[in-house]
Amino acid sequence: MGENREREIEDAVIENPGALGFPDATAIRNVRVAMGFGRIDLMLFPRSGPVKLVLVEAKHTSAPDSISKVIGQLLMYYSGALRIGATGFECFRKFSEAQRERALSTAWISPKQLTGGVSPPPAAWAVIQSGEKLCPEDVRLFVAINAPPHEALRTAVKVLRQHHALDIGLVVVQERRIQLLSADAV
After folding, report:
1. Sign of the torsion angle spanned by Cα atoms 138, 91, 56, 100
2. pLDDT below 50 — which residues of the chain?
3. Distances in Å between the alpha carbon of 69 and those of 5, 117, 138, 152?
4. Around 89, how many Cα atoms within 13 Å sit in the side-chain half-sphere?
5. For residue 7, with 0-12 CB atoms within 10 Å meaning exposed, 13-18 middle and 19 or more buried, which class applies?
6. Topology classification of domain 2-181
7. Which of 14, 77, 78, 167 has CA 20 to 30 A from 160's CA?
């Protein structure tokens, strides 16, 4: 049941990536960023601007792990994303454009699909990691939730911003409306 509610959050972001500041972004849902990592809820690919990749982890606030796990999950995906090379990034981006229906489905997307048929998985991941790696400045992070954030989540985001210069955006999605909380509001 929580997955369906999280899917509603994802759908709202897919329909309006401009609310996060990336109006022209394409998306991939339910995809690994690196071998051995879990699957991120959404990857967005802006067509312009300095940000190349946007990672969005969606959580329904009634989920028992919504506060305690979401930051850890997002940081894990972020570290995996920084292993993506230029070749792999183009595979992801092209898949988001050329395979739009598949990219937005809820079915898992394999590295073989992303790389146009490279197999076995370790070979596909080698392709994804080849070339110049993404830099922290290339990646933007968001937590998307369905209610105002709990104080513990606000505090975690604030501390990471202040002490580690890691800017994680907080997005509240209610009734398909998206509110991006300002850094001051966190």
Report:
1. positive
2. 1
3. 17, 33, 24, 11
4. 22
5. middle
6. Trna Endonuclease; Chain: A, domain 1 (3.40.1350)
7. 14
The domain spans of the chain are 2-181
Predicted pLDDT at 1: 42
DSSP letter string, the chain: -HHHHHHHHHHHHHH-GGGGT-TT-EEEEEEESSTT--EEEEEEE-SSSS--EEEEEEE-TTSTTTTTTHHHHHHHHHHHHTT-BHHHHHHHHHHHHHTHHHHHSSS-B-HHHHTTS--SHHHHHHHHT-SSBP-GGGEEEEEEESSSPPHHHHHHHHHHHHHH---EEEEEEETTEEEEEPTTT-
